[in-house]
Design goal:
The chain is α/β, with parallel strands linked by helices. It contains 16 helices and 15 strands. Helix 11 packs across helix 12. The radius of gyration is 24 Å and the shape is elongated.
């Protein structure tokens, strides 16, 4: 196949649609291996930033972007007509839930439409966005097969011979020091055997190991299984946290002890609720699709119910902590530490901290936040915030009735003593103070 030859001799131009947390590092990885990359995004603000060699994501280095912009290996654009010059196109657009907690497929559909508009013979298209089984062959395939060859307006494109279509789920773990885009094995499923071979040839260039599966549906399902596994296990330890707290048992101590078993146990840790673009969302893509088959995904629903109740639990614990000093949440000044959904990153999508702020507001508390990586909270689809991160000084800390540790940034661990010394009361949702060796009867675990 011509596409495989082009990939193997590195003359293939690769188009990445969606230059976010997934698409940007992937594009840079291909550029690093010598491919010419055209990155496409509808967000006009990102194009000049990236083309001037700057980064808008904390853990993606400017140095890396600048290097490939300067060598003309990487360019960003919002001109989708340039898709025709790409030999392989990888789609990395968002897959959120809508207000009814159903899959919002508009980003994939819009990308599909634009690719279909510019589709030409010999191109390989791979979808990477996390989604329900059936997306690639039910949504993208019909769009592409309806596309017409420009040389013969009557001839429709045929998958596996005129163009190639595959699904390969992203497994990015932002800021993980042990794994990055190139070192995480990648599952690949093609619509046909030729499609699979073309997609494997592509990822073999940059990924340590490709893992072929028999279909795009199997590849789509694999990603969901990975995220459902995390969601269910996190829900389990969150439930255990509540039970053990009533029994005056420290769940973190118990998990550490159980982790010494060298087989059959993998530790998961409780927290203030699920966050990020994947784990709180992707499982419900399967729930939605399963309804078509009259099947109820009870484990997924139960995990969702427990995990979404966690911010309420934290607020309840905060109320109890204030009670010990004869105060109520109403009228108290609360400082939330950490806005991002996990430590040491600047991504606050679905962050439980945002929910906590809202719940504290609802209780009549005055709420501020601090996050070294998130200087300001903006309006999102769900929340209407316009708040700036406050400085973490001793004077500021002393003004709050309660400090709630929501994200366990290393920065807070390093400052744990300082925070504990200067705070009146602390609710710790991540066991950070204990791990930092700071013990005090004004620290409450939640
Ligand atoms: N962030 C992660 O760690 C992670 C991990 C695994 C899987 N995923 C999955 O990967 C997909 C992308 O996630 P992300 O975190 O990179 O999202 P993101 O929001 O960071 O980036 C998506 C980008 O796509 C752009 N975009 C939206 N519609 C577009 C269109 N029609 N054409 C071109 N660009 C468009 C947006 O402007 C944005 O820049 C999602 O399905 C997500 O579930 C993400």
């Amino acid at each position: 196949m011509e596409i495989i030859k082009k990939i193997e001799n590195k003359t293939a131009t690769i188009g990445i649609i969606g230059l976010g947390y997934v698409g940007l590092p992937l594009g840079l990885e291909f550029a690093h291996k010598g491919f010419d990359i055209t990155g496409f995004d509808i967000d006009e603000r990102k194009i000049p930033i990236l083309n001037s060699g700057k980064s808008y994501i904390k853990h993606i280095s400017e140095e890396r972007i600048k290097k490939f912009v300067d060598s003309k290996k990487f360019k960003a654009t919002s001109d989708f007509s340039r898709l025709t010059s790409c030999d392989a196109i990888i789609i990395c657009v968002p897959t959120p839930l809508n207000e009814h907690r159903e899959p919002d497929m508009t980003y994939i559909e819009n990308s599909g439409k634009i690719v279909a508009q510019y589709l030409r013979k010999g191109q390989l298209v791979v979808l990477e966005s996390s989604t329900y089984p059936g997306t690639t062959d039910e949504i993208l395939l019909p769009m592409f097969e309806a596309a017409q060859s420009s040389s013969n307006t009557k001839a429709k494109f045929k998958v596996g011979t005129d163009f190639y279509l595959a699904f390969s789920p992203e497994r990015e773990d932002p800021n993980n020091p042990n794994f990055s885009t190139g070192t995480i094995p990648k599952v690949v499923g093609g619509v046909t055997k030729n499609c699979q071979q073309a997609a494997i040839a592509l990822y073999d260039q940059v990924i340590v190991k490709t893992v072929p599966v028999s279909s795009t549906r199997a590849a789509e399902a694999t990603k969901l299984v990975e995220n459902i596994y995390r969601s269910v296990n996190i829900a389990l330890v969150n439930e255990l946290k509540v039970v053990f707290d009533k029994m005056n048992i420290d769940v973190w101590e118990v998990i550490e002890a159980a982790s010494t078993k060298p087989f059959g146990f993998h530790p998961f840790y409780p927290g203030p609720g699920l966050g990020g673009h994947c784990i709180p969302i992707d499982p419900f893509y399967l729930t939605w699709k399963a309804r078509e088959f009259e099947v109820h995904t009870r484990f997924i629903e139960l995990a969702g119910e427990i995990n979404t109740s966690m911010p309420y639990y934290v607020v309840e614990k905060a109320g109890a902590a204030l009670n010990t000093v004869k105060k109520s949440l109403k009228g108290s000044k609360v400082l939330i530490l950490g806005a991002s959904y996990k430590k040491d990153i600047d991504d606050m999508r679905e962050s439980p901290s945002l929910r906590l702020i809202e719940l504290f507001y609802d209780k009549g508390a005055k709420v501020d936040y601090n996050d070294p990586y998130v200087p300001q909270l903006f309006k999102t689809r769900k929340y209407n915030y316009d708040i700036k991160s406050v400085e973490l000084t001793s004077g500021k800390l002393k003004k709050y009735d309660l400090v709630v540790l929501s994200t366990d940034h290393t920065y807070y661990k390093e400052k744990a003593n300082f925070i504990a010394r200067n705070s009146k009361l602390i609710v710790d949702t991540r066991n950070l103070f204990d791990k930092a060796g700071v013990k005090s009867n004004k620290i409450f675990k939640a």
